[in-house]
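Anyone opening a protein record will find just a pair of labelled lines. A complete record is shown below as an example:
=====
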Amino acid sequence: VQLQASGGGLVQVGDSLRLSCAASGRTFGPYNIGWFRQAPGKEREFVAVINWSRGSTYYADSAKGRFTISRGNAKNTVYLQMSSLKPGDAARYYCAATLRGLSRWPNDYTYWGQGTLVTVSS
């Protein structure tokens, strides 16, 4: 599965942004699609994950109430809608795919996109 993350950019504190993750060459099918982020000098951090088939979701505490992960109408797209962005949300955001359930652990993910950069200006 080849993943392509997009939608990052420069926003201001309090703004909203929607990230997209698209699979090329196939649909997401049985996969769980997760979003992670990594800021400079920090470890990769789990944000949210969705099971494509069932639509069930799981969020990191830092994302609850502000971020929403969802399936697109096309069977190869997942979105991460982010609102009320804070400086601490600035990072490179990656989408990834796993068959190992709604996992928060990067090592459980087999396929990774290249990431999209989110910058939050105060």
